[in-house]
Inverse folding.
């Protein structure tokens, strides 16, 4: 009887043994890095925007749908932190495979800064941002498909009026999709160790700011032909309000190219940066796509 099950059990036992050994080697570093990133970025943005500068930014608070009580906001933040911690666990687990794959040469990570020169080392940071923006737009839009939404993106859209803690409030499936940008990039192009670290820190701060709930872009920037390519807080906030359109992360050009930007986005930014409270969420037409 044992011989019958050996072909099935042996690979499972071997994998479990390998994973436990890899986890012992990598888990401590991964836990510290992922948890520190999330809590540092979200707490910093929350403290600065919602507490320290709340008075001066009050006129730039993006209006919410309906009244928000302290109790309702507290429940929302607790839920967001709970799901964010679950996302951190997903990232920790997937990081074990990433670290082991890098050690085995599967991914093109490198440590020597002179291997490809300083131009590529620092330039790859900006290449990665452009690649991530494209990846985020299309994966984000795909997760809105009815066949995928319930299992991936629905948790994130439980929040209609975001806070910085919304940044990682994902279902495990969405967290896994979002993590994949680094291994996919490093499968194809070389990536310096520190460039990866800088990018991951930049990404989480940018994510927390996108969910800040207060418009941080200077007045007039959204209509500038170059500066307006930067995605504002309002741009992503409208996505949470309408649950469609405005799929981009760092930039607006994918939404503009594909016709998925909300039609009144620029008017909304103009009103909020001018302190005009008359433009309410329910008055915003839906985008396409």
């Amino acid at each position: 009887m044992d011989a019958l099950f050996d072909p099935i059990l042996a690979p499972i036992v071997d994998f479990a043994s390998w994973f436990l050994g890899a986890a012992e080697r990598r888990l401590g570093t991964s836990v510290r890095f992922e948890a520190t990133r999330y809590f540092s970025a979200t707490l910093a943005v929350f403290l600065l925007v919602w507490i320290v500068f709340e008075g001066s930014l009050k006129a730039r608070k993006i209006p919410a749908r309906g009244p928000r009580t302290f109790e309702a906001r507290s429940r929302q933040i607790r839920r967001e932190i709970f799901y964010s911690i679950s996302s951190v666990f997903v990232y920790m687990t997937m990081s074990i495979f990433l670290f082991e794959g890098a050690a085995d040469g599967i991914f093109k990570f490198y440590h020597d800064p002179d291997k490809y020169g300083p131009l590529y080392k620092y330039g790859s940071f900006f290449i990665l941002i452009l690649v991530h923006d494209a990846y985020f737009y299309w994966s984000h839009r795909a997760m809105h498909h009815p066949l995928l939404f319930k299992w991936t993106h629905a948790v994130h859209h439980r929040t209609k009026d975001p806070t910085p803690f919304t940044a990682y409030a994902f279902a495990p499936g969405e967290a896994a999709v979002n993590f994949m940008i680094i291994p996919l990039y490093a499968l194809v192009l070389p990536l310096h160790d520190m460039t990866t670290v800088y990018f991951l820190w930049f990404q989480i701060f940018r994510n927390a700011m996108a969910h800040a709930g207060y418009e941080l872009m200077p007045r007039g920037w959204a209509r500038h032909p170059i500066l307006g390519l930067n995605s504002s807080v309002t741009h992503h906030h409208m996505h949470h309000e309408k649950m469609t359109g405005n799929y981009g992360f760092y930039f607006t050009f994918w939404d503009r190219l594909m016709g998925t930007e909300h039609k009144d986005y620029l008017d909304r930014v103009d009103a909020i940066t001018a302190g005009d409270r008359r433009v309410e969420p329910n008055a915003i037409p839906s985008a396409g796509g």
Summary: Residues 27-214 form one domain. The first helix runs from residue 2 to 52. The beta strands are 109-110, 191-192.
